[in-house]
Amino acid sequence: MPDKTMIHWDAHMCLALHPQASFAPIDQLRACGLNHVSINVGMDMNPVAQIMAVMAGYRATIAAHPDKYVQVNSVADIYRAKAGGQISIAFDLEGALPLLERPDMVALYAQLGVRQIHFAYNRNNPVADGCHDVVRGLTPLGRRMVAAVNAAGLLMDCSHTGRACTLEIMAESSQPVIFSHANPLTLVEHGRNITDEQIRTCAATGGVVCISGVSGFLGVAQPTAADVARHVAYVADLVGVEHVGIGLDNGFLQPELDDTPPGDFDAGYWWPPSAGYGNAIADMRYAPIDTWQQLPQALQAVGLSAEETDSVLGGNMLRVATKVWHGQPA
């Protein structure tokens, strides 16, 4: 019989970064049986004023529809949402620039609903290296930021971060570390994908590598559940099925809402053509939301048992969050 406590968990997705963003994609996830999703509220390219407005808008939408959504403060909220037929929502922050070089900002974002953070979005900043920039390493400020993330009970994420820098972050963290949306470099050569060493080191922290459904990182033009499952199987074979999850990284733009960062925004800087991006990320394609309904069969087709499939679809992230987030049961 299926485990009634099983949680299906998408570790990362992106709505329009606008206070009036539609939550229709969240409703689609809920209809597909998802219990929990982490949504991006800002990146290094977004100023704090924009991020705060986005969080305020998202929180207002969640509060206005208590029949559909639950704002997550704890794992208990995720179970409460599942019991009530709602989907639970956490926020994630992509980059350290919104922290304003102040470790105490981490706890403030936590109070506003952020439950995971990584320190660089493709490019270097005063905290950490981006995966599409020169190698420098975790800075002294970065080490203090890791301590702040651990102290605030947030998930330490290494997506979008420079390869050597992620190894330093994982060595510095006192808690399990995740990659919320990253794929194995051995399968697809792309600067955003991660090496076997990174995958092994993440697993050694007790963490989870969540597979992205983005076309360029999967190495296909139109991603399917089978493509995602192939990458899951690689990580599971390398470090064990208990260290792999799903973060499809779906992006949803709304033409009627302008969520472009204000000022002189250069998309080619953040997504450099030399790193394999065409037309910034406009040419990227995403595994559709209904991939979630196809994943159980696709994962079992690559050799996972029903129990292992449930672990990948959410149990592994649930285990890590239970350990990391404050106020959780042992």
TrEMBL record:
It comes from Rhodoferax antarcticus ANT.BR. One of its GO terms (biological process) is proteolysis. Gene3D superfamilies: Metal-dependent hydrolases (3.20.20.140). It comes from the Bacteria. This is Membrane dipeptidase family protein. Pfam families: Peptidase_M19. InterPro entries: Metal_Hydrolase, Pept_M19. One of its GO terms (molecular function) is metallodipeptidase activity.
